[in-house]
Amino acid sequence: MTSPTTTRNDPARTTPALSAGLVIAILLVAANLRATLTGVGTLLPSIQQATGLTASASGVLNTVPLLMFAVTSPFVGRLSHRFGTTRLLVAALAVLTAATVLRSLPSLVCLFAGTVILSAAIAIGNVLLPTMIRTHVPGPKAHTVNALYVTAMGLVAAVSSGISVPLAKALPGGWRSALAWAVVIALAALVAWLPRLREPRPDAGVRTRGKHARTPWGSWQAWQVSFFMGLQSLVFYTAIAWLPSILADQGMSTAAGGWTLFYYQVIGLVTGMALPLLTRGRHDQRFTAASASVIVAAGFAILLLVPALALVACTLLGLGTGACLVLALSFQSQRASGPGETTALAGMAQSIGYLVAAIGPLLLGVLHDTTGSWSGALLLLIALSLLMAGTGYGAGRDRLVSARTPS
């Protein structure tokens, strides 16, 4: 099966001048895509102690967001086509704000229900943000805005991991209050986007240039982009969920494990900032994606074989996953031929991708409960990282996927 290709020129695409306000609004959305999720891993020991959740049940708690991403993503394109990107994004931010509060209420039902709802809201932002950048950011500046978007997302995610345990100790509500802190960022994003509802519909052109772009299910290139997205997400969210527990099992304190997770994400953040500069103008990224994936595998191997070098392992993991994240997000717009096609490809990549990723936290929790060790889980992560190298090599080819005409 061959992937259809199209020209890189998009004559129908027109974008207004880029304003500082729009960049800030985009970055505030990016900051919300992980802020409510990454702190959960460092708080898991406290949550388990307070609620009696097993490692398997905690794995379900970490898997729910990924399942919701997978379930919600395919519908975002149609909803955006019907209601407009800005309206849908504002609604998602309002739901995210309310659900973040709901999750922190003193009830296991609220903990899981709030996680389900906020994850659906985040899924909408995940799919819409590449489209917003493709639609509103002039081509020469898109590379820079993509780098800033990944930086904002990674920075807030790292901060959330680092401060969650200290907040739980300092605030009256303990871990529940620590889960709720990200409502501040959600409110800030909502305030930034609400005034844009009064502006002329900036996404009207995307909706009127033709029919809703078809999801490219028949394109092998699109499947490779999707699997690469899924495997890098699986690696990242598994590390976020279980790395503190793995380190604690090796003798590290809970607080130190949280800050090590923070360090891992900072390394990924720096890598994500640097990669777009190093690869500027390079459309063929096969070897970059494959090499980054192999570095991830090396990090997990060191964590398994030489646990005393945990800091070295986390450095390699940060380098590899930081690069893979930027590439996975970039492929969703770089491999599409226009804004509508970007939404279609992003919806497919994130639906399939997060379905793959959802297996990770739950499977590793079950493996640990079954074997009483993290060795099997780390071996599995090494194998999956090598598989990611293969899919990254395919997704990195300089070819464009047509979302309208499946092959």
From TrEMBL:
Location of this chain's protein in the cell: Cell membrane
Domain of life the protein comes from: Bacteria
An annotated Gene Ontology molecular function: transmembrane transporter activity
Predominant subcellular localization, coarse grouping: membrane
UniProtKB keywords: Membrane, Transmembrane, Transmembrane helix
CDD domains reported in the protein's UniProt record: MFS_NIMT_CynX_like
GO cellular component: plasma membrane
Name of the molecule in the record: MFS transporter
Organism of origin: Amycolatopsis thailandensis
Phylogenetic placement of the source organism: Bacteria, Bacillati, Actinomycetota, Actinomycetes, Pseudonocardiales
